[in-house]
Amino acid sequence: MAFERLIRFEDEKGEVVYGNLVKETPTKEIEGSVVEIVNGSIEKGFSKATQKTTVKKVNPSFPN
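The structure corresponding to this sequence follows.
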């Protein structure tokens, strides 16, 4: 799956998910923006979901 800009973040429900920023967005403006959800992991790859969600908090750390 191709994506523009992969981010890992906490959504409004408190779940940590991956998302695709479809346009260039300044870092300070990512929180509060609506992004496409992507399912999967770095190890197994990603696929687009049909849902979108709001970024509550950007989470730059990745699991080991």
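The chain has a mean pLDDT of 88.
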